[in-house]
């Protein structure tokens, strides 16, 4: 295999035209080996093989600097820059992350996992180069729906001001995770249809020079184009058209399902991988039933419909009561606020990590105005996504300290739907609900249907001496801790489900002083700025002893949940050891 | 005056063409009366008089719904919708806010004060209308540089998907607060130069219909245009060209200085309004001196150069070491991260309230990557801006709970510059520094020049029994409190300057236990998720009594600082009363 001879980009430059094509086939074997056994971003990587080879053939990485947007298309780049073992040798799968990572290689400049950041990050590299009098090329690579994100559009708009070498590769595969949304994709189509000649051109309207490459999976065509813009003295867009999932028929035909894929059998890719209850499907079914009764209910997503189970079929069923705004989370929150203001009932869902893009919109567009939109915060948990760029452990400090917001943490399936239903039907508060993330846990208890009497905690079992306030996904740890304390001391502690992340039940906390001397708080997120600290503040100058349990404030990467729980002393046994 | 007959939009519709022009002159008298005596957004309001009259002439507010971007151009709208006394009768100035406000009038739909939100908010109103089968017009009004903000661009991109009535008035006055930045403004110029006929058209590239109105200060021309788009069945941009500050020569010529203006004498507008030391000028002079010695230092702003004193003259002096990214705060943070990654020394400054737009960029683009950019957080204080949309009391919970960030709070001028200088020169941490906001307070103490030994608090005077940990702008309250406690009890307390918002000095806190039984924390911001709660958590299960002082988590509007300090018991006297 040609890949055997490739240990750095310099080796790519030695290949003939035919050898480059063989290299592309070799690369796909490596991608298939890793992706079929380990899972990962399939479509983006398979579609960007040729373009990556051409980039390394023409430019001189790392002196010339590539910045990959989201970086979920960077696997070929990793293969060509000294990390091929992680694709061809199963025992080396763990050597690399799924994203660019400066700790792995001098060819990677940023840890990136959120969309729409590449142009702005690369603008910074270019600006510093210009101040230092450098001459290297700086290349941002963006596509897969990322163009519609506010940060990307800000970056595109600013780039023309650089006035120096700057190359933006627009990887147009006509897809986001699901289908693309937004007017600009109509312009991309018009550009494709006119072979790049259409006068109305988004990139030119942003002040950028423009070049069109019809076949972004043709290495020679790409090489010619890249050679033309190499060492350019001004910002230029190179619009290349690629096929998402290129080279593997199921991925080319079922693009949405193969954007990211679980491990699979390449010979039988549709083999069922089990199933069972999950909150995505259940939330979708609940919302569809609700929509049928009430025309004003709207489910909203930002390019990640899977968060609430909206498959293509279910999207059709919802019709105009389903809105995918594309990658545009800021817009989504403001639009949800507007819908609520005008009498609609919007429910917007995305990952905890992606809500980070909407802090100002939650504060200004939604909460100052007190509009009753519902936000569903998915994978908001140590049990959620484990990549450093997708952590779900920061949303409590981020969301819960914004005034007017009501942030709820259900402890099981039934409580989740009770909270969601209340939130949709009320019109007094902006409400966010954490979607449980520790499996679908059922309870036969009765849960309140009205949460408008804010910040009332629920005593689940009354005891004495120690009170355990166990929030959301960590409620079950609280239950086990209660059992263990009773077992060890003979005295049953009080177990409390606080439900509300955003406030203190002062009356209940005050009452606990009567026959408790110890309060333990448990929260599924970092402690800094979180829920437990508010309880500590409340009891600060009383005799009550307070123990806050949660996670340390740090960025963790590709972790094992058990390790994190243990290092934060978050098991019933370790907590018992601490407090008794 | 014609204005005497105008009590609602219906009265506007009765006027003849000539009377409408007289009304415009009358409105300007009201604007001048309020703005000269009270100060406020001058240029945006003076430029938008005719357009507002034409909008109310053609459309039927509040059934037809106007959403004003930033809403700093809404004064004429307030005058025409029943709130004219607040402009013509000095005793009624206090009746209204400077922004749209649903509590004032049914003609206002949102509290708005940040830029770039109007299109998305209005999309929400339109979507809810469509679900309900309504027929009213929804009109977003955006300009003054707001187009370059990510949320606005996301909104423009999405709007074409509405497929129903939606009107976007682009108020093009060729200005942001300072001059415009970004490639799209070149497109606006091309459109102006071609009378709207230029084929390359940003709005069409976003999938929107487009109409051009060359004179946006000509009421009849506007009325004709608005009549054409009224009841349109699809999203349309109406690009109108107005003169910022129209009708008052100083404001037309000195647009930047008259964007917002202090109270002034209309007959002698340039009369000096005093001066004295301020952090804007001092920071600018410091940075300019630094830049001369070091070509890699870059001052960055997002359309608000006044935050760090960069007047037009000083911008010229800085040359390519000064970057105004336009209204594009997300881009600014990512670009700063890129500059630092490539060896530059970026310093980005904006208001505390506007940093809210950059939570994800601070977390993902900057802090995960650990790049050593410096962020200067201005008006981050209860002493800062007093409008509900511009509060500076939320940045501690927002910024300080992000891992890897070092957030510093100086207690005086000399400490601020020591921290800033260290931050620029180090290359290990992303650093944010609060610009002091309680006046320029000098100290003859010596301050550290190296802050890389993180989270080391400074004991300013050693005492016993009570320790006061007084952060940043509230350090002076801490000093007074220390004196008062000594006076009342005969025992001097310990006074500590914690300096670091982002971490705990565990060793120092542990040592305090020896001869202290009480700790008082003081912070200039809300308590929830803030600094003091971390101290409470630390001491949670010890004997130490902790009292956290700061602000209640709430949106406050047009407040008096003294009132807020008293209601939060934030005076030395009240604190003494509580703790003794």
Kindly provide the radius of gyration of chain A, computed on alpha-carbon positions and rounded to a whole number of angstroms.
26 Å
Number of helices of chain A: 24
- What is the CATH homologous superfamily assignment of the largest domain in chain A? Thiamin diphosphate (ThDP)-binding fold, Pyr/PP domains
Strand line-up across the major sheet of chain A: 9-8-10-11-13-12
Which two protein chains have the largest interface (Cβ within 8 Å of the partner's Cβ), and how many residues from each?
A-B, 117 and 118 residues
Q: Under CATH, the topology of the largest domain in chain A is which?
A: Rossmann fold
Beta-strand content of chain A: 15-25%
- As for the number of domains of chain A, it is 3
Largest sheet of chain A: 6 strands, parallel
Distance linking N and C termini of chain A:
63 Å
Gross CATH architecture of the largest domain in chain A: 3-Layer(aba) Sandwich
Structural class computed from helices and strand pairing of chain A? alpha/beta
């Amino acid at each position: 295999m040609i890949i055997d001879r490739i240990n750095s980009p310099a080796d790519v430059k030695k290949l003939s035209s035919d050898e480059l094509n063989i290299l592309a086939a070799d690369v796909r074997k490596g991608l298939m080996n890793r992706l079929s056994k380990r899972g990962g971003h399939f479509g983006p990587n398979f579609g960007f093989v040729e373009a990556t080879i051409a980039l390394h053939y023409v430019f001189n990485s790392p002196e010339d600097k590539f910045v990959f947007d989201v970086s979920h298309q960077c696997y070929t780049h990793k293969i060509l820059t000294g990390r091929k073992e992680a694709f061809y040798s199963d025992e080396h799968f763990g050597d690399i992350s799924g994203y660019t990572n400066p700790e792995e290689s001098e060819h990677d400049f940023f840890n990136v996992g959120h969309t729409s950041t590449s142009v702005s990050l690369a603008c910074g590299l270019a600006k510093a180069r210009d101040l230092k009098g450098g001459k290297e090329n700086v290349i941002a690579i963006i596509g897969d729906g990322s163009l519609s994100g506010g940060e990307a559009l800000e970056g595109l708009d600013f780039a023309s001001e650089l006035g120096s070498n700057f190359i933006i590769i627009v990887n147009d595969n006509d897809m986001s995770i699901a289908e693309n949304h937004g007017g600009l994709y109509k312009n991309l189509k018009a550009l494709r249809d006119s072979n790049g000649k259409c006068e109305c051109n988004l990139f030119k309207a942003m002040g950028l020079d423009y070049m069109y490459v019809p076949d972004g999976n043709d290495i020679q065509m790409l090489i010619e184009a890249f050679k033309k813009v190499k060492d350019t003295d001004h910002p230029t867009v190179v619009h290349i058209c690629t096929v998402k999932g290129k080279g593997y028929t199921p991925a080319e035909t079922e693009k949405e399902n193969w954007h990211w894929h679980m491990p699979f059998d390449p010979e039988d890719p549709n083999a069922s991988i089990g199933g069972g209850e999950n909150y995505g499907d259940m939330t979708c079914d609940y919302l569809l039933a609700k929509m049928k009764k009430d025309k004003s209910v709207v489910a909203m997503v930002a390019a990640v419909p899977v968060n609430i189970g909206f498959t293509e079929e279910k999207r059709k069923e919802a019709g105009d009561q389903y809105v995918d705004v594309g990658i545009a989370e800021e817009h989504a929150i403001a639009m949800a606020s507007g819908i609520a203001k005008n009498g609609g009932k919007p429910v917007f869902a995305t990952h905890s990590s992606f809500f980070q893009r909407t802090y100002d919109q939650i504060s200004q567009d939604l909460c100052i105005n007190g509009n009753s939109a519902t936000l569903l915060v998915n994978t908001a948990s140590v049990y959620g996504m484990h990549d450093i760029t997708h952590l779900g452990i920061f949303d409590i400090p981020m969301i819960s300290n914004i005034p007017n917001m009501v942030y709820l943490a259900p402890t099981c399936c039934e409580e989740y739907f009770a909270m969601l239903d209340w939130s949709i039907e009320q019109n007094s508060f902006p409400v966010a609900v954490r979607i449980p993330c520790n499996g679908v846990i059922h309870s036969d208890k009765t849960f309140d249907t009205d949460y408008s009497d804010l910040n009332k905690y629920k005593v689940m079992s009354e005891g004495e001496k120690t009170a355990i306030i166990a929030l959301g996904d960590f409620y079950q740890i609280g239950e086990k801790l209660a059992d263990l304390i009773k077992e060890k001391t003979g005295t049953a502690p009080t177990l409390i489900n606080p439900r509300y992340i955003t406030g203190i039940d002062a009356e209940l906390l005050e009452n606990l002083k009567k026959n408790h001397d110890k309060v333990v708080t448990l929260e599924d997120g970092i402690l800094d700025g979180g829920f437990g600290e508010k309880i500590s503040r409340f009891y600060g100058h009383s005799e009550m002893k307070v123990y806050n349990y949660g996670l340390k404030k740090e960025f963790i990467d590709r972790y094992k949940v058990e390790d994190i729980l243990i290092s934060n002393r978050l098991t019933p046994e370790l907590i018992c050891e601490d407090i008794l």
